[in-house]
Amino acid sequence: MIKLFRIILYFIVFIYSLIIFLPKENLFFYIINQLENEKIFLNYTKSEDKFLKFRLDNIEIEYDDIKIAQISKIKIENYFFYNQITIKNIISDNSLQTFIPRTISNIKVIYSILDPLDINIKIDSRLANAIGTIDIINKKLSLVLNISKKFQKRYPMIIKNLKFKEKTNKGGKYSYEYNF
């Protein structure tokens, strides 16, 4: 019994040490290289690698030499049972305003070992909020959006792609599903 406990303890310490000492910055540079193959470029002013966290500040996203968006902060947190990516203050280019909202204040992407088949998403902006999941097995994104009346007037192109669920005092609830 004690031997089994030691084996489990050594395994937990090994995995936790792997997470802490994983070269997160090298992994990030690998991702950047993969994005560059698709003509997507990330320019940032500061990166910070701590034990369980990796952070980028002032990121500009360009596609084929066209500025698409600016992000104030991306933070990646790796824990043993729980991983989270937080993206703060996204401002998209004016040319994309008919397709996506101009500003998104916060996006959280959460993966937990306790729910290994789903990735949870939470999006907050001034005019709309969304909660959703990515089903890893079925490769399906499902979102439920709470949209204000201002959002409905400003972004009719987005509303056309959503499925109406119910009307609320502030606007409406919509759903969106995408298979990839």
Summarize the model shown.
With 180 residues, the chain is α+β, with helices and mostly antiparallel strands.
How would you sum up this structure, described in words?
- With 180 residues, this protein is α+β, with helices and mostly antiparallel strands.
- The protein has two domains: 23-78; 79-180, no CATH class.
- 25% of the residues lie in helices and 51% in strands.
- It contains four helices and eleven strands.
- Strands 1, 2, 3, 4, 5, 6, 7, 8, 9, 10 and 11 form an eleven-stranded antiparallel beta sheet that branches.
- The chain is globular.
- 8% of the residues are buried.
- The model has no long low-confidence stretch (mean pLDDT 86).
